[in-house]
Design a protein that fits this description.
alpha/beta, Rossmann fold, two-stranded antiparallel sheet
């Protein structure tokens, strides 16, 4: 399967972009512990990448949700299932990290699958995760950043979050192989589980889904209408250079509720990745 994308096996039960079917395909070709973890669990079902595992296939589920009301409702609704539900706002390090959560609650760190989708520090959550040891990692990337651009927000800041390319590099450093990109998620397995008979041995530039990339302007929140900071991969033209700073100045003077300039750290990180912020 050197050049075939496993997206062809995609289908949705509760997932958004075919992740349920892709997970099912992966699990046919690797052996793993039947323990799944999902950050940003919401109500346990909505856009979940793990629901079918713990709900229908007798996996142990470890679900983390920052919203207390949703967390309480989740516990009540699925009390008969083999799940542990935690109301916690995860952070990359220290007492609110995923490693601390597992250690403090004596949870088995050797999990089969982990799904990271907290709409903020996803990159740094995985980067700093050392105790928890998943075989499969599903992690959200910014789908408006092309597959060839390597960018992640500085730790502690949120702007563009991270690109699939940055996650591929991080995965390599942690011993993982990228095998699939859906529209919003990058999917990895441990290097020792990779078999090119079943999984594509191709770079992120090939695996990436470019359908959300609206050249040349990127979006901080997937919706250019709501993103008032013009962001370009590559160089903006003369028109953009002249007009957008004027627009920015007007918005700043009007104190538009959605207008907020990124920090110097973020701008420097963008420049390093070849992204221009006007």
């Amino acid at each position: 399967m050197q050049k075939n994308k496993i997206n062809v096996f995609g289908r949705n039960i509760t997932s958004q972009y075919g992740e349920d079917g892709i997970i099912e395909y992966i699990l046919k070709h690797i052996n793993t512990n039947k323990i799944c973890v999902e950050f940003g669990a919401w109500d346990g079902k909505f856009l979940s990448n793990t629901f079918s595992l713990w709900h229908d296939n007798k996996w142990q589920g470890i679900l983390v949700e920052a919203d207390k009301e949703k967390c309480d409702a989740l516990k009540k609704r699925y009390s008969s299932y083999n799940i542990n539900v935690f109301n916690k706002l995860l952070e990359p390090k220290r007492e609110n990290s995923i490693d601390a959560l597992f250690k403090n609650n004596q949870l088995n760190p050797n999990v089969g699958l982990i799904s990271i989708d907290i709409d903020s520090f996803d990159y740094h959550i995985w980067k700093n995760m050392e105790y928890v040891n998943p075989d499969i990692v599903i992690i959200e990337h910014n789908p408006t950043i092309p597959g060839y651009v390597e960018y992640y927000d500085p730790e502690g800041e949120t702007f563009l979050k991270c690109s699939a390319k940055a996650l591929e590099t991080l995965g390599k450093s942690k011993g993982y192989k990228l095998i699939c990109c859906t529209k919003t998620n990058s999917i990895f397995i441990k290097n020792e589980l990779f078999n090119n008979e079943f999984f594509p041995d191709m770079p992120v530039e090939y695996l990436f889904d470019y359908s959300f990339c609206s050249s040349p302007i990127l979006s901080a929140d997937r919706n250019p209408v709501h993103n008032l900071i013009p962001i370009f991969y590559g160089s903006p033209n003369k028109f953009h250079k002249i007009c957008y700073p004027i627009i920015n100045r007007i918005l700043a003077l009007l104190r538009h509720k959605n207008y907020k300039r990124p920090s110097k750290k973020i701008i420097a990180q963008c420049e390093k990745a070849g992204i221009t912020v006007l």
